[in-house]
TrEMBL record, chain A:
Protein name, per record: DUF624 domain-containing protein
Keywords, sorted A to Z: Membrane, Transmembrane, Transmembrane helix
UniProt entry tagged with the keyword tRNA processing: no
Regions crossing the membrane: 44-67, 95-117, 123-151, 172-192, 204-224
InterPro entries: DUF624
TrEMBL record, chain B:
Keywords of this entry: ATP-binding, Cell inner membrane, Cell membrane, Membrane, Nucleotide-binding, Transport
This protein's encoding gene: ugpC
CDD domains in the cross-refs: ABC_MalK_N
Name of this chain's protein: Sn-glycerol-3-phosphate ABC transporter ATP-binding protein UgpC
Matching InterPro entries: AAA+_ATPase (IPR003593), ABC_transporter-like_ATP-bd (IPR003439), ABC_transporter-like_CS (IPR017871), ABC_transpr_MalK-like (IPR015855), ABC_transpr_MalK/UgpC-like (IPR047641), Mo/tungstate-bd_C_term_dom (IPR008995), NA-bd_OB-fold (IPR012340), OB_MalK-like (IPR040582)
UniProt cross-references to PANTHER family, sorted A to Z: MALTODEXTRIN IMPORT ATP-BINDING PROTEIN MSMX, OSMOPROTECTIVE COMPOUNDS UPTAKE ATP-BINDING PROTEIN GGTA
Organism name: Rhizobium oryzicola
Length: 235, 369
């Protein structure tokens, strides 16, 4: 086993302090390369704590908490932080899952109904487009709500307002993140059975990481703005 | 209060005794360096203080408590190892926090301590990285940080700079010295590098074969070595040790080295010299006490011409090290880069004996101290 020692103790290149920090996709790739094993473990944790189903929303929030810490380059104690977040967000996550889930289900129902109707009459193209846009917005809003909630403890209604603002302010990075999530699942379906373990290994955590990465900038922006407004109002 | 007292401390492995009844008093907040060649027992002594080696005999007292049988974790010490000993699967943050986690320190305390230490060591940007991505210098800082966060009374450092390149070693040397001043803790530092010892220590402990040879300030060790080993070990290039005969003429003592008659300073203790009159001694002259011309600030009464053949000239930039042969003996002189000489040249230098040393060739102890 001695030969393994060099593998662990070999010096690296070092990390220059003043090196320009990567942004965008290169940063996304860098964090994944660095944290891939943690993401695998996080995925397993998510699955484990989602097994009772009623805990799935809280597990989603806990996964988002860990992903946000990874994006912010903060130290992560995976199990401890996950469990703490699970407990802290359990109630809010359940309400979120019920509301957002219902809204998205209604939206998807409306889309399919209007799509079917639009085949017979073009009159239904307008409500189809409207339901598409609204469902997409609700999805973005729901994703932003998760990120706002795990970033800062705010009252429910304030988080709802701030997340709506975030979804409207910069939707493109989040849309890209959702496209990445969709791509992960499409890849799983396309490459089945080779990709049979993808969901168990990374789909959930990597998807949430993409969402956290996409939402990080705008969430920080709206929270900072809200903080400023509160400070101005206080005196 | 973290004064440390070693009383007749010894270590044996079976029949082999590697540390021989050493006595040493280390003051609170002192920076003490154990120096010596490989196998002299310095690391073993440090490991006994750390609690990583069982003490075979004698007493180890930290503060006012006998620590011989106290487990390492309860000694209020932190150790930095030569190979850093970082946990490869943990991030820098977790490596640094690990000791505090074991002590069940609250999370906010751990965060504060780690962030403070990281800031001091300028490694805040590395906290979420794994050791495999770090260079040697960065790893060493992390190892120091891990020791710092525990806020121990005593820091033990076992050749912490040996794996670094020369440039980084110089930087880290200065950093550790600054750290000592900032932390106000007792530091015990083991090295075989006498430059590290000279530049960092409040006092140096020179060891050889498990025995303490001399304990003193760096300057005193350099100026007043108690034996030939210390004289040869401290100083680079090392002191020239030349066989000589001690004679007296007109009330003045001279050291005869081959054809050279070198006047010894009047300040030397006559009573000690008288005991060696007409006998063989070993004359010690530092390489910098040979000059190409007699400088104005040396006493002509304490200097004499010295002739030797150049065997090798090593230009160092600010000076030249001349490897010389005089009367079949090798010696080294440090001269100005302006001094021109070729291999095989017979050169005339001036030997300044103001700081010369005299040793007994049998006991190897200093005649002067």
């Amino acid at each position: 086993m001695q030969w393994l020692e060099a593998f662990w103790t070999k010096e690296g290149k070092g990390i220059p302090k003043d090196a320009p920090k990567r942004t965008g996709l290169p940063l996304f790739a860098e964090i994944i390369a660095r944290e891939w094993w943690e993401l695998v473990k996080l995925n397993l944790l998510f699955l484990l704590f989602s097994l009772p189903l009623v805990t799935a929303p809280a597990a989603t929030f806990a996964t988002a908490t860990i992903c946000r810490m990874m994006v912010e380059d903060r130290p992560v104690y995976l199990l401890r932080d996950f469990l703490e977040a699970l407990r802290a967000h359990a109630m809010r996550a359940t309400v979120w899952a019920l509301v957002a889930g219902t809204a998205v289900i209604i939206g998807v129902g409306a889309i399919s109904a209007y799509a079917a109707a639009a085949r017979t009459s073009l009159f239904y193209a307008a409500p189809l487009a409207l339901s598409l846009v609204v469902t997409l917005f609700v999805t973005l809003w729901a994703a932003c709500f998760v990120m706002v909630s795990v970033t800062e403890a705010r009252p429910f209604w304030e988080s709802l307002k701030l997340s709506a603002l975030a979804a409207l302010l910069r939707p493109l990075p989040l849309l890209a993140a959702l496209a990445f999530v969709a791509a992960l699942w499409i890849a799983h379906i396309l490459f089945y059975p080779v990709s049979v373990f993808m969901p168990a290994v990374m789909n959930f955590s990597l998807g949430m990481f993409a969402v956290a990465f996409g939402a990080q900038g705008v969430v920080a922006q709206v929270l900072a703005r809200s903080e400023e407004e509160n400070t101005i109002q206080e005196p | 209060m973290a004064s440390i007292s070693l009383k007749k401390l010894n270590k044996t492995y079976g029949a082999l005794k590697v540390v021989h009844d050493i006595d040493l008093e280390i003051a609170d907040k002192e920076f003490i360096v154990l120096v010596g060649p490989s196998g002299c027992g310095k690391s073993t002594t440090l490991r006994m203080i750390a609690g990583l080696e069982e003490i075979s005999g004698g007493e180890l007292i930290i503060g006012s408590d006998l620590m011989n049988d106290v487990p390492s974790k309860d000694r209020d010490i932190a150790m930095v190892f030569q190979n850093y000993a970082l946990y490869p699967h943990m991030t820098v943050y977790r490596n640094m926090a690990f000791g505090l986690e074991l002590r069940k320190a609250p999370r906010d305390v751990i965060e504060r301590q780690v962030e403070e230490a990281a800031k001091i060591l300028d490694i805040s940007h590395l906290l979420n990285r794994k050791p495999k991505a770090l260079s040697g210098g960065q790893r060493q800082r992390v190892a120091l940080g891990r020791a710092m966060v525990r806020n121990p009374a005593v820091f033990l450092l076992d050749e912490p700079l040996s794996n670094l390149d020369a440039k980084l070693r110089g930087t880290m040397r200065a950093e550790i010295t600054k750290l000592h001043k900032r932390l106000d803790a007792t530091f015990i530092y083991v090295t075989h590098d006498q430059v590290e010892a000279m530049t960092m220590a409040d006092r140096i402990v020179v060891m050889k074969d498990g025995h303490i040879q001399q304990v003193d300030t760096p300057q005193n060790l350099y100026d007043r070595p108690v034996n030939m080993f210390v004289a040869g070990f401290i100083g680079a290039p090392q002191m020239n040790l030349l066989p000589a005969k001690l004679t007296q003429e007109d009330g003045r003592f001279f050291a005869l080295v081959e054809e050279h008659k070198l006047p010894l300073p009047q300040s030397f203790d006559r009573s000690r010299l008288l005991a060696y009159e007409g006998k063989d001694v070993v004359l010690g002259i530092r390489p910098e006490n040979f000059h190409e011309l007699a400088p104005a600030d040396i006493d002509p009464a304490n200097s004499a011409p010295f002739h030797a053949v150049v065997e090798l000239a090593e230009p160092m930039g600010s000076e030249v090290h001349l490897n010389l042969i005089a009367g079949g003996r090798n010696m080294i002189a440090r001269v100005s880069p302006r001094f021109r000489s070729k291999i095989g040249d017979r050169v005339s230098l001036v030997a300044d004996l103001t700081n010369a040393q005299l040793f007994d060739p049998q006991t190897e102890r200093s005649i002067l101290y």
